[in-house]
Structure formats: C-alpha cells, structure tokens
Amino acid sequence: MPRTGRDALLEVLRSEGVTHLFGNPGTTELPLVDALATAEDLRYVLALQEATAVGMADGYAQVTGRPALLNLHTSAGLGNAIGNLTNAQANGTPLVVTAGQQDRRHLHHDPLLAGDLVGLARSVSKWTHEVTTLAELGTIMRRAFSDAVAAPAGPVFVSIPMDVLEEEGEAPVPRRSTIERGSVAGGVEDLARRLASTDPERLLLVAGDEVAAAGAVEALTEVAELLGCRVSGSPLHSNTVFPTAHPQWAGPLPPHASAIGAELAAFDTVLLVGGRAFMVYPWSPGPPVPEGVALLHLSPDASQLGRTWPTDLGMVGDPRATLEALRQVLAPLVSRDAAAASAARLRERSEAARAGFEAKALAGYDAQPMAPAAAAHALLSALPPESLVVDEAITTGTFVRGFHRVTTPGRYFFCRGGGLGWGMPAACGVSLGADRAPVLCVVGDGSAMYSAQALWTAAHEQLPVLFAVVNNRQYLILKGYLRGMEGESARSGRFVGMDLVDPPVDFVALATSMGVPATLVERAGDVGEAVRAARAQGGPHLLELPIAAP
To answer: Cβ contacts of residue 168 below 8 Å, gap of 6+?
Structure first.
C-alpha cells in the first residue's frame, strides 16, 4: 500500500521501541513534527538549544541501554550540536541522529537552510547518509538503529530532505532483525591460566565503560572475588563499571601517563576489560604500561587491541559472555586461600583510605566558602542509597566519585569527552529514561553556563532533578594547567579569561527565570537539609553552592 515517508519513519521508530524524541524543531523538521501531532505514543522532548537536546538524548540512551532518537534542525542546528556529539562519540553512546535537509526540488539552487549535512556530521558519527529516495528511507533508518548499538556503539547520522517525509508512494520498512551479539571470545582457557598463575597481590583488573554497556558488572565482580585482586576503573570512565562500595574497588586510574605507569608498576599482570586502553590528558612523560607488565585485553572492538600498547593476549568478544565463561573455567584453577588473604588485605586498605577521605571532608565543613570535599560529601551523604548521580563537577568531581558508593550498576554517569555542557541536559535524559526517577546533577559553574537551557526543559517536564552548582567563579582546571606550565600566568598571578566575577553569575535568579526553584547554600552543614527539602518538593530544584579553590 502506498504511504508517506513520515508514516514509514514512525513505523521504524515504534518497532524499535522509541517512546521519546529529543530535539529543537525548525522548518525542515515540520513534516515530522506535524506527524507527531496525532502520535500520542511518541513524546517529543523539547530542548531550547540543539547541544542541550544532544545531552538529553545521551543521558537517556545511557540509562536505558537503547539508541535514542535525536532530531536536529538542518546545518545550523547540527552545527550547534557538534560539541555534545563529540561527547556522545567519546562516551560510546548509541544515538540515531536525524536532521532535516531542504526540499530536493530546489537543492540545486542552494536555498536557505541547505548544506552539506553529511560532511558536517562525518567527524562525530560512525557513518553518515543522506536519504535521496522514499524507497530507501525505511532501510536506512532500520540500519541506523542496528549500527548505533553495534560495537563500538556511537552516534549515526541520517539527513532527511523534508519533501521525502511528505512524499507518498512505495515506502517499504524491513522487519526488525534479531541479532545475537553476546559472543564469547576465543582464548578463555589461556586467559584463565594466566590469571590463576599470578599472585593476587600482583594482579590488577581494569574496567572500562564497555563493562557497564554490556551488563557485565556482576560477572566482573564475581571474577574479581574469585581472584581476590584489586580492581580499578579506566581513566575517566563514564559509568558504574564495578560496585564502588566493594572493598576490592580502588577507584579510577589517573588520566596521566606517568601516574598510570607508577600505579601499574606494582603489578605483574593487568587485565583490561573494555575498549581504549589508557586514555591520557594532558601529556606527561613515560608510557602508561611499564616494561615487564603483561597486558591482557578483552574488548568487543577488535580495532582497540594492540592499537597503542602491545598486548600479551588480545581477545575480541562480548565482555559479559566472556567473563561468565571465564568464571567457570577459573573456579577450579585459583587458590581460594591466597585469594581470600589478598581480599582481606584489600579490605583493610580500602577501609583506611575511605576513612581518611571522609575525615578530610568533615574537616572542611565549617569553611566559607565551603571546601569542595565538604560540599560533595554533604550532597552525597544526604541522598538515599543507590541514588542516580550525573557528574560534571570537573575539579570537584574527584570527591563526587569518591563519596558515591553503590553496589549496583547504572547509578553514575560522567562524560569522558571533555566538552562542557553535557551534565545538566544529561541529567534530564537520565531521569526520563529511568521513569522520571530523582537524579542529582553536580555541575561546575563554567559547565552550567554551556547548557543552562536544560533548566527550562526540567521545569517543563517537571523532572525531579536536583542541580547542584558548585560555584568557584572561575575556570579552575585551566588555572591548574597554567600553573603546571610554569609560564607567564603562573609567575605573574594573572590568568587571562579565567574568572567569572565581573559580574558574577546569579544561578538562583537564572534558575528561577526558567521556572526552577533555587536555593543559595553557603555552609556545608546546611547542604543536607537543603537536599532533603528540594527532593521532597518532587520537581526540579537548583542549589548554588559557593566553594573555595582547593
């Protein structure tokens, strides 16, 4: 039966389980927006700027584990979105990104709003395509959803001329394929022998974001407990890759090559489960993997094996399926007594380290402006167990990660892309994807100004997101790098373009102007009460927390 392009598009979305579309519409998207007027099962989540729409879709996709549909406005809207699309690409977030292209009938006249959309999107997408016929629309959109989630997951981009959606004719939609992606890597027996023959004290497991994406946290935990060894997160990992309340968890590796190398030098064998081996920033001397350390690497993405650092054993496979198989092979090979003794020592060190970390925070409770550690401790201590946290606190983020102790995966979200403006919209997307669950978003003042439009969407959707702006009125991380350079800025004490004080940003007034209630809290001892009061209201709320430079 003949049908319109927009009917074919909606069929793909429904059959892929899409319930929310994220975007900011323009004229080239009006055929889609018009179709949604009678599609009550598809909710359009309005963002006031395209980068904010990307962040929302990113958070939604991460918490649901499914590709999110993001609709952008031709070349100008895609240009606005590029920054957060680089973050989505770095996070490995499965996004199906569409943008409206101008009507094909006058593209040869270079009309207003036309442009090279696929060229613009190419650097931030797994692949790009511009639909040229109605007949291909269904196939291309089905392919987009499949490829967005295939390893390595990431954004894919489809440009859709607006008249394609209005055209009526043959518009086939292929049925959704059933694809089994959980393949066990070859070499599990060899891997098990290598791990079992290593002293637990000299063995390190490193977990990357692919552990969380594959649903492999439980399997990795069981393997680590069998071995009795330490577990670290890969540098700047984005999700909960191991229970942070577990005594064998040692936190993330630092993002500096020399510091990673210093930590890895204490081990004979390192098993990395994930994609990129050791992402570093900024440059520092020395390789992160010292000579003499055997690197074993399990990844769902073959291109990452041996890409930068040679591996003694590289394995391509699904992390969950492979770790579950490894657990079975390992069980009769390991020394239970040695594993138990090593785990006991790790527990003692973990308890001592956490006690010291907490004591440092408590010691700063009376300071004004409050100490970053005290602010993070007060925020996290006021939350119920296993709370959802989105972290773009930058210089305060170390303390957010340190005090967010959970036993279940999927509770923590961070952006390893490095581009600012991700956290506030991502928190909205996480709340939507988690059935409007409460979310704490801890965000630096500089980051907050990149995506303050997310406050409007939080108010419009009445999302229970608590935005905690840790405000030091400066780009502190950049000042830190300048001090490390020991150049003119450090010698003179004059940091050009780093201070946000003339005038200072009034975040309480900013939030209120967008319909979000807000509170200024100046003492760490008052933060807990403010958190509980804000959560009791049920909708969005913003806390402005003035903090000192650490």
So the answer is: 2, 3, 4
